[in-house]
Amino acid sequence: MSAAFKTIEYRKDGPLAWVILNRPDKVNAYNLQMRDDLWEVLFAIEADSEVKAAILCGNGERGFCAGADLSEFGTAPSQIAARRVRWERDVFGKLAALRVPSIAAVHGHVIGSGLELALLCDLRIAAADAQFSMPETGLGLIPAAGGTQTLARVVGVPAALDMILRGTLLGASSALGIGLVGRVVDRQRLRPAAEALARKLASIPPDVLARGRSCMAAAENLPIDLGLEFEARQVHALQQ
Amino acid sequence: MAGQSLVAIEVARGVARIALHGSRAGSHANLRLAEQLRATLEEISVLDTARVVLLSSDGPDFWRGGAGRVATTTDVNRYRIASHLAAVPQPVVVAIQGRAFDQGLEFALAGDIRIAADDARFALRQLTRGQLPFDGGTQRLSRVVRRGVATDMLLTGRELTAAEALACGLVSEVVVPGRLLARAIDIAEGIAMRGAAATRFAREAIRRGSDLRLDDGMRLEADLNFLLFPDEDRRAGLDAFRKRRKRT
């Protein structure tokens, strides 16, 4: 089954949901239409109990996503209106808290919002040609799809400061070195490798997987004593 | 010695360079140095021409460290400098050569981007001398490097080489000693050319956000982003981007 949105190709393959950014002529630049399409796709995934894992990737030769479509910047009526809309349609929060595990499979340009989308997924796998950067501060902007938070949590505060304050461009092997991605494969192996990983996740009993993921979230958000209690409750609940 | 300046400031091309200098800078229990550094940091934090702070040392060592004479709890605040460095609003680049020991390492840990010469060495030796780090080292070290490394350094006084510091993320670059300052200035000037409010806000979002729950950190980032909307650098950055786009 597949469904076409204006900017996203959504394809279901058994337990796997493929979410494929599909503005290849714009290197999949993230715009308002893509936000709205992604919002609908994420709801479709949430509502579909067949789906056990999601893969986020991009169509086109040049890359996964070259960042936000800056031609739309400055179109918000006011700061107050922009703030309201941000939380009315919190697509980044929705992706971060998706019911099923998510894998970003990225190639070529993985820039700005593109990198932020990948960072909202559970796992990242990169093609050897992938290039990563957060260029926002060079344009007087800051990452605003959670990047200042997620990057620091994935690679640590010092590496995040370095990338965001300097706009450093990283190749795939450097990204692997600092833990920004977990695996690097040849370009033609990217989707098969992501699929294999997703099938592995999909084969884990959903209840176990969900509790494992919530334990990871607890490890991030709770002090250790409460995190240990949380883990113990999850173990206990599984034994019931 | 009285009245001699242990700290030099120079502002050029958006970078405020704080140089520790004189052979006494960074030796033990230097109350006068602490006072001068606090005054310097306070001055720089309200200086609009300073978009980035660069901290370096003129001597063979960044900071030699040594047995402190910090005796009483009322006294200890007078020696503290690291939180004053963390509190400046600008991004802080730190250039480290030779020894960065004890309070010197604690001080460097309060910066944002550390680079080192390949002769640099890093250690927190206080516990091995029956003292505790008093300038935030126990907290900042474990937020910068993995817990295993932090525990080893804190409890055993283990000294890291520049290569080891690079491997564990304590520094983000290592260069030959003769290139250290030039490279640090290069990095600092590079950041100074980016949006001034943007680099400050990004730094704040990363640093403050890392101590928050993820959803609260996301809120902080989003609000800082909305605050930036009327910023002049932001407008100029977007205009320049659109012009480039049109040309190509």
Brief descriptors of the model:
heterodimer; A: 240 residues; alpha/beta; 2-enoyl-CoA Hydratase, Chain A, domain 1; 2 domains; seven-stranded mixed sheet; four-stranded mixed sheet; 10 helices; 45% helix; globular; B: 248 residues; Lyase 2-enoyl-coa Hydratase, Chain  A, domain 2; six-stranded mixed sheet; three-stranded mixed sheet
- CATH superfamily grouping of the largest domain in chain B: 2-enoyl-CoA Hydratase, Chain A, domain 1
Q: Give the name of the CATH architecture of the largest domain in chain B.
A: Alpha-Beta Complex
What is the CATH domain class of the largest domain in chain A?
Alpha Beta
CATH topology (fold) name of the largest domain in chain B: 2-enoyl-CoA Hydratase, Chain A, domain 1
Give me the secondary-structure topology.
The complex is a heterodimer of chains A (240) and B (248).
Chain A: E1 2-4, E2 8-13, E3 16-21, H1 32-47, E4 53-58, E5 63-65, H2 79-88, H3 91-96, E6 102-106, E7 109-111, H4 113-119, E8 123-127, E9 131-133, H5 147-155, H6 157-166, E10 170-171, H7 172-177, E11 183-185, H8 190-202, H9 206-221, H10 224-239
Parallel strand pairs in A: 3-4, 4-6, 5-7, 6-8, 7-9, 8-11
Antiparallel strand pairs in A: 1-2, 2-3, 9-10
Chain B: E1 7-12, E2 15-20, H1 31-45, E3 52-57, H2 73-76, H3 82-86, E4 92-96, E5 99-101, H4 103-109, E6 113-117, E7 121-123, H5 137-144, H6 147-156, E8 160-161, H7 162-167, E9 173-175, H8 180-192, H9 196-209, H10 214-228, H11 232-247
Parallel strand pairs in B: 2-3, 3-4, 4-6, 5-7, 6-9
Antiparallel strand pairs in B: 1-2, 7-8
